[in-house]
Known about the structure:
The chain is of the alpha/beta class and 265 residues long.
Amino acid sequence: xxxxxxxxxxxxxxxxxxxxxxxxxxxxxxxxxxxxxxxxxxxxxxxxxxxxxxxxxxxxxxxxxxxxxxxxxxxxxxxxxxxxxxxxxxxxxxxxxxxxxxxxxxxxxxxxxxxxxxxxxxxxxxxxxxxxxxxxxxxxxxxxxxxxxxxxxxxxxxxxxxxxxxxxxxxxxxxxxxxxxxxxxxxxxxxxxxxxxxxxxxxxxxxxxxxxxxxxxxxxxxxxxxxxxxxxxxxxxxxxxxxxxxxxxxxxxxxxxxxxxxxxx
Length: 265
């Protein structure tokens, strides 16, 4: 989530810097005019949809799918900078007969130099990064920063609004549930490194304080969802294991907390 108009402007201009194609739809969950003003200055190239009544990220993404009139829909968070040529590899993958979800390679855009252990593989998951190297791979799930779905190979609506991230609720499992569904129905989930984006990481997240809070939320997600299939990547090295040791206490505290009702029903 992002509340900086300058960051959103850079993201939107990156999306628009491509050959003519499907419309750019901006679903705005905010209650101020910043996003509306930026979209309005880009004219007909952007379809702006105010949605302050949104129940969370899943609700807004389902609204985006409702508004789209294309067979595929590509998502990009408002704090993720796309590299030129980011869009086309995702769509090309979805043109294959058996692919339902494609995730972009999400690299960090640090605004402050982080502690060394926050640049490890397990830390990347909690920073919404998705870097599995230079080869396309089949994966059990994608990361929410940027990915594309084939509407006819996904549930309708694609996202379960009862489990998605929303204010007052730190758990975010909508992509995991979507990917489990499509794989259970015989479709593939793919990591596509030719599509590259950079996830902005502000100074507030480049700290152990923020990471310990995220570890606690991850423990709660594990309690709710159960054990998830690991991503295909290199074995953890000493720094990765040191990071896991550093976050073990808050993670297990979250995992041991009894489940509670999500705010808003």
